[in-house]
Amidinotransferase (Actinoplanes cyaneus), 265 residues
Amino acid sequence: MCPPEHFTVEYTINPWMDTTVAVDAAQALKQWESLRTTLVDLGHVVHVLDARPGLPDMVYSANGAFSVDGTVYGARFRYPQRADEAVAHQAFYDTAGAWRFVAPQHVNEGEGDFAYLPAAYGGIVLAGYGFRTDPAAHAEAQEVLGRPVISLRLVDPAFYHLDTALAALDDRHVTYYPEAFSEASQRVLAQLFPDAVLADRADAEAFGLNLVSDGRHVVLNTDAVDMGHKVRAAGYHPVHVDLSELKRGGGSVKCAVAELRPAQR
Protein backbone atom coordinates (compact mmCIF):
# COMPACT_ATOMS: atom_id res chain seq x y z
CA MET A 1 0.00 0.00 0.00
CA CYS A 2 1.02 3.62 -0.46
CA PRO A 3 -0.37 6.44 1.71
CA PRO A 4 -2.24 9.26 -0.07
CA GLU A 5 0.15 11.93 1.17
CA HIS A 6 0.12 13.67 -2.22
CA PHE A 7 -3.33 12.58 -3.36
CA THR A 8 -5.30 15.11 -5.38
CA VAL A 9 -7.55 15.04 -8.42
CA GLU A 10 -5.71 17.43 -10.72
CA TYR A 11 -6.35 15.74 -14.08
CA THR A 12 -9.03 13.50 -15.57
CA ILE A 13 -8.17 10.03 -16.87
CA ASN A 14 -11.38 8.20 -15.91
CA PRO A 15 -15.07 9.15 -15.68
CA TRP A 16 -15.03 9.32 -11.87
CA MET A 17 -12.42 12.09 -11.62
CA ASP A 18 -13.74 15.64 -11.17
CA THR A 19 -11.11 18.35 -10.91
CA THR A 20 -13.69 20.88 -9.72
CA VAL A 21 -14.24 19.08 -6.39
CA ALA A 22 -11.43 19.44 -3.88
CA VAL A 23 -10.08 16.36 -2.13
CA ASP A 24 -9.97 16.40 1.67
CA ALA A 25 -6.35 15.29 2.04
CA ALA A 26 -6.53 14.73 5.80
CA GLN A 27 -9.68 12.65 5.44
CA ALA A 28 -8.15 10.61 2.61
CA LEU A 29 -5.15 9.77 4.78
CA LYS A 30 -7.38 8.90 7.74
CA GLN A 31 -9.52 6.57 5.59
CA TRP A 32 -6.43 4.95 4.06
CA GLU A 33 -5.01 4.30 7.53
CA SER A 34 -8.31 2.70 8.53
CA LEU A 35 -8.02 0.32 5.58
CA ARG A 36 -4.41 -0.52 6.45
CA THR A 37 -5.35 -1.16 10.08
CA THR A 38 -8.28 -3.33 9.02
CA LEU A 39 -6.02 -5.56 6.93
CA VAL A 40 -3.47 -5.84 9.74
CA ASP A 41 -6.19 -6.68 12.26
CA LEU A 42 -7.35 -9.46 9.93
CA GLY A 43 -3.87 -10.97 10.18
CA HIS A 44 -2.23 -9.69 7.01
CA VAL A 45 1.22 -8.17 6.63
CA VAL A 46 1.13 -4.78 4.92
CA HIS A 47 4.21 -3.29 3.28
CA VAL A 48 4.05 0.47 2.81
CA LEU A 49 5.63 2.28 -0.14
CA ASP A 50 6.82 5.85 0.35
CA ALA A 51 4.55 8.32 -1.40
CA ARG A 52 6.32 10.44 -4.02
CA PRO A 53 5.59 14.08 -4.84
CA GLY A 54 4.12 14.59 -8.27
CA LEU A 55 2.43 11.18 -8.30
CA PRO A 56 -1.05 11.87 -6.84
CA ASP A 57 -2.45 8.50 -7.98
CA MET A 58 0.29 6.40 -6.39
CA VAL A 59 -2.16 5.56 -3.59
CA TYR A 60 -3.75 3.17 -6.11
CA SER A 61 -0.91 0.72 -5.62
CA ALA A 62 -2.67 -2.25 -7.23
CA ASN A 63 -1.81 -0.76 -10.62
CA GLY A 64 1.95 -0.96 -10.12
CA ALA A 65 2.57 -4.64 -10.93
CA PHE A 66 1.07 -8.14 -10.88
CA SER A 67 2.72 -11.01 -8.98
CA VAL A 68 2.19 -14.76 -9.22
CA ASP A 69 4.27 -17.32 -7.29
CA GLY A 70 7.28 -15.06 -6.88
CA THR A 71 7.33 -13.69 -10.43
CA VAL A 72 6.36 -10.07 -10.94
CA TYR A 73 5.07 -8.71 -14.24
CA GLY A 74 5.70 -4.99 -14.08
CA ALA A 75 3.33 -2.22 -15.13
CA ARG A 76 3.56 0.21 -18.00
CA PHE A 77 0.92 2.90 -17.60
CA ARG A 78 -1.35 4.17 -20.35
CA TYR A 79 -1.14 7.80 -19.25
CA PRO A 80 2.14 9.71 -18.77
CA GLN A 81 0.90 11.25 -15.52
CA ARG A 82 1.28 7.85 -13.85
CA ALA A 83 4.32 6.46 -15.68
CA ASP A 84 6.83 6.97 -12.88
CA GLU A 85 4.74 4.91 -10.48
CA ALA A 86 5.98 1.80 -12.24
CA VAL A 87 9.56 2.70 -11.34
CA ALA A 88 8.69 3.01 -7.65
CA HIS A 89 7.01 -0.38 -7.63
CA GLN A 90 9.91 -2.05 -9.41
CA ALA A 91 12.27 -0.62 -6.78
CA PHE A 92 10.22 -2.31 -4.06
CA TYR A 93 10.45 -5.73 -5.69
CA ASP A 94 14.13 -5.28 -6.55
CA THR A 95 15.02 -4.56 -2.93
CA ALA A 96 12.53 -6.85 -1.16
CA GLY A 97 14.30 -10.03 -2.31
CA ALA A 98 12.87 -13.38 -3.45
CA TRP A 99 11.09 -11.79 -6.43
CA ARG A 100 11.81 -12.24 -10.13
CA PHE A 101 10.82 -8.96 -11.72
CA VAL A 102 10.12 -8.78 -15.47
CA ALA A 103 9.72 -5.37 -17.07
CA PRO A 104 6.88 -5.24 -19.63
CA GLN A 105 7.08 -4.29 -23.28
CA HIS A 106 3.34 -3.66 -23.57
CA VAL A 107 1.01 -1.26 -21.79
CA ASN A 108 -0.66 -2.82 -18.75
CA GLU A 109 -1.79 -1.49 -15.40
CA GLY A 110 -0.95 -4.34 -13.06
CA GLU A 111 -3.65 -5.77 -10.87
CA GLY A 112 -5.97 -3.13 -12.19
CA ASP A 113 -6.46 -5.42 -15.19
CA PHE A 114 -5.22 -8.80 -13.91
CA ALA A 115 -6.70 -11.22 -11.37
CA TYR A 116 -5.31 -14.63 -10.34
CA LEU A 117 -7.27 -17.68 -9.25
CA PRO A 118 -4.73 -20.35 -8.22
CA ALA A 119 -7.25 -23.17 -7.71
CA ALA A 120 -9.45 -22.55 -10.76
CA TYR A 121 -8.61 -24.81 -13.67
CA GLY A 122 -5.13 -25.44 -12.31
CA GLY A 123 -4.45 -21.73 -11.91
CA ILE A 124 -5.63 -19.10 -14.37
CA VAL A 125 -5.23 -15.36 -14.87
CA LEU A 126 -8.20 -13.23 -15.85
CA ALA A 127 -7.17 -10.15 -17.81
CA GLY A 128 -9.12 -7.09 -18.88
CA TYR A 129 -8.68 -4.87 -21.93
CA GLY A 130 -10.59 -2.18 -23.76
CA PHE A 131 -9.55 0.99 -21.96
CA ARG A 132 -6.12 0.75 -20.31
CA THR A 133 -4.26 -2.53 -20.89
CA ASP A 134 -3.23 -3.56 -24.41
CA PRO A 135 -4.39 -7.06 -25.43
CA ALA A 136 -0.78 -7.83 -26.39
CA ALA A 137 0.10 -7.56 -22.70
CA HIS A 138 -2.06 -10.60 -22.02
CA ALA A 139 0.12 -12.81 -24.19
CA GLU A 140 3.21 -11.24 -22.65
CA ALA A 141 1.92 -11.92 -19.14
CA GLN A 142 1.21 -15.54 -20.05
CA GLU A 143 4.82 -16.01 -21.18
CA VAL A 144 6.21 -14.27 -18.09
CA LEU A 145 3.99 -15.98 -15.53
CA GLY A 146 3.50 -19.39 -17.11
CA ARG A 147 -0.22 -19.36 -16.43
CA PRO A 148 -3.12 -19.41 -18.90
CA VAL A 149 -4.46 -15.91 -19.42
CA ILE A 150 -8.14 -15.41 -20.28
CA SER A 151 -8.79 -12.12 -22.10
CA LEU A 152 -11.98 -10.28 -21.18
CA ARG A 153 -13.13 -7.18 -23.04
CA LEU A 154 -14.43 -4.27 -20.97
CA VAL A 155 -17.02 -2.14 -22.77
CA ASP A 156 -18.30 0.43 -20.26
CA PRO A 157 -15.99 3.43 -19.64
CA ALA A 158 -17.26 3.67 -16.05
CA PHE A 159 -15.57 0.33 -15.40
CA TYR A 160 -12.28 0.99 -17.10
CA HIS A 161 -10.22 -1.55 -15.15
CA LEU A 162 -10.99 -5.21 -14.55
CA ASP A 163 -10.88 -4.62 -10.80
CA THR A 164 -13.88 -2.28 -11.03
CA ALA A 165 -15.98 -5.01 -12.66
CA LEU A 166 -14.71 -8.35 -11.29
CA ALA A 167 -13.06 -9.66 -8.14
CA ALA A 168 -11.75 -12.97 -6.82
CA LEU A 169 -13.59 -14.06 -3.68
CA ASP A 170 -11.23 -16.93 -3.00
CA ASP A 171 -8.86 -19.19 -4.94
CA ARG A 172 -11.55 -20.38 -7.36
CA HIS A 173 -14.65 -18.18 -7.11
CA VAL A 174 -15.39 -14.72 -8.48
CA THR A 175 -17.98 -11.99 -8.41
CA TYR A 176 -18.57 -9.71 -11.38
CA TYR A 177 -20.92 -7.27 -13.10
CA PRO A 178 -21.84 -8.90 -16.44
CA GLU A 179 -22.77 -5.76 -18.39
CA ALA A 180 -19.29 -4.31 -17.90
CA PHE A 181 -18.08 -6.93 -20.40
CA SER A 182 -18.73 -7.63 -24.06
CA GLU A 183 -21.33 -10.29 -24.85
CA ALA A 184 -18.62 -12.76 -25.84
CA SER A 185 -16.70 -12.16 -22.61
CA GLN A 186 -19.92 -12.60 -20.64
CA ARG A 187 -20.30 -16.03 -22.23
CA VAL A 188 -16.73 -16.91 -21.31
CA LEU A 189 -17.26 -15.87 -17.70
CA ALA A 190 -20.55 -17.77 -17.47
CA GLN A 191 -18.86 -20.90 -18.74
CA LEU A 192 -15.84 -20.61 -16.44
CA PHE A 193 -17.74 -19.52 -13.33
CA PRO A 194 -21.33 -20.79 -13.38
CA ASP A 195 -21.57 -20.26 -9.60
CA ALA A 196 -20.26 -16.68 -9.60
CA VAL A 197 -21.82 -14.02 -7.39
CA LEU A 198 -23.40 -11.65 -9.91
CA ALA A 199 -23.41 -7.94 -9.17
CA ASP A 200 -25.71 -5.32 -10.66
CA ARG A 201 -24.89 -1.83 -11.89
CA ALA A 202 -25.64 -0.24 -8.53
CA ASP A 203 -23.11 -2.57 -6.89
CA ALA A 204 -20.49 -1.71 -9.49
CA GLU A 205 -21.14 2.04 -9.33
CA ALA A 206 -20.68 1.84 -5.55
CA PHE A 207 -17.25 0.28 -6.25
CA GLY A 208 -18.55 -2.85 -4.56
CA LEU A 209 -16.48 -5.04 -6.87
CA ASN A 210 -13.30 -3.13 -6.09
CA LEU A 211 -12.73 -5.36 -3.08
CA VAL A 212 -10.05 -7.46 -1.43
CA SER A 213 -10.82 -10.94 -0.13
CA ASP A 214 -8.69 -13.40 1.81
CA GLY A 215 -11.14 -16.21 1.10
CA ARG A 216 -13.16 -15.54 4.23
CA HIS A 217 -13.19 -11.80 4.89
CA VAL A 218 -14.26 -9.54 2.03
CA VAL A 219 -13.12 -5.96 2.56
CA LEU A 220 -15.22 -3.45 0.62
CA ASN A 221 -16.25 0.16 0.95
CA THR A 222 -19.15 1.35 3.09
CA ASP A 223 -21.27 2.48 0.14
CA ALA A 224 -21.47 -1.09 -1.18
CA VAL A 225 -24.20 -2.18 1.24
CA ASP A 226 -26.08 -4.46 -1.16
CA MET A 227 -22.82 -6.02 -2.34
CA GLY A 228 -22.01 -6.78 1.28
CA HIS A 229 -25.31 -8.64 1.59
CA LYS A 230 -24.52 -10.66 -1.55
CA VAL A 231 -21.10 -11.81 -0.40
CA ARG A 232 -22.50 -12.67 3.02
CA ALA A 233 -25.21 -14.79 1.38
CA ALA A 234 -22.43 -16.56 -0.56
CA GLY A 235 -20.72 -17.56 2.70
CA TYR A 236 -18.16 -14.77 3.17
CA HIS A 237 -17.84 -12.18 5.91
CA PRO A 238 -18.06 -8.59 4.60
CA VAL A 239 -15.91 -5.95 6.30
CA HIS A 240 -16.82 -2.38 5.32
CA VAL A 241 -14.33 0.50 5.25
CA ASP A 242 -15.09 4.12 4.32
CA LEU A 243 -12.97 5.20 1.32
CA SER A 244 -15.16 8.02 0.05
CA GLU A 245 -12.20 10.32 -0.66
CA LEU A 246 -10.25 7.74 -2.67
CA LYS A 247 -13.36 7.13 -4.78
CA ARG A 248 -12.95 10.67 -6.09
CA GLY A 249 -10.00 9.39 -8.09
CA GLY A 250 -11.86 6.37 -9.44
CA GLY A 251 -10.73 3.70 -7.00
CA SER A 252 -11.58 2.00 -3.75
CA VAL A 253 -10.33 -0.91 -1.62
CA LYS A 254 -8.74 -3.07 -4.31
CA CYS A 255 -7.12 -0.14 -6.10
CA ALA A 256 -5.35 0.74 -2.84
CA VAL A 257 -3.96 -2.77 -2.26
CA ALA A 258 -1.36 -4.65 -4.30
CA GLU A 259 -1.60 -8.31 -3.32
CA LEU A 260 1.76 -10.06 -2.97
CA ARG A 261 1.97 -13.68 -4.09
CA PRO A 262 5.44 -15.02 -3.20
CA ALA A 263 6.90 -18.26 -4.52
CA GLN A 264 5.35 -21.40 -3.07
CA ARG A 265 7.76 -23.23 -0.79
Notes: Residues 134 and 207 are 23 Å apart (CA to CA). The chain has one domain: 25-256.
